[in-house]
Amino acid sequence: MKDKPGDDPITDITDRGLLVYSPDADALIVEIVELGGRDEIEPKLQSQFHPQRRPDLRTMTEYLVSVRDRRRDAKERG
Fold first, then answer.
1. Is there a contact between 28 and 60 (Cβ–Cβ < 8 Å)?
2. 4 phi/psi in degrees, rounded to 5
3. What are the distances in angstroms from CA 58 to CA 1, 24, 34, 63?
4. pLDDT tens-place string over residues 24-59
5. Using N-to-C axis directions, what is the helix angle for 38-46 and 23-34, rounded to 10°?
6. In whole angstroms, how far apart are CA 78 and each of 36, 42, 54, 72, 74?
7. Which of 10, 59, 64, 65 fits 28 for a cystine, CB–CB 3.0-4.6 Å?
């Protein structure tokens, strides 16, 4: 890991085990990454939903749930 804590919220959550947003939001991020969706969510988590911007957790969670559900459906369809 070349970045330091606070540089990349996804790395902080998935590799460092840090609480970044909330337990529920962080768990969604872990699940999405496990479903292969890191590249999909990374741009928004680095901009609109970066922790330093104090994102609206409700809006962010709705976005993450939609990504997770779409990826789950795609995986189930094979």
1. no
2. -110, 160
3. 30, 11, 22, 9
4. 999 999 999 999 999 999 999 999 999 999 999 999
5. 140
6. 13, 24, 36, 10, 6
7. 64
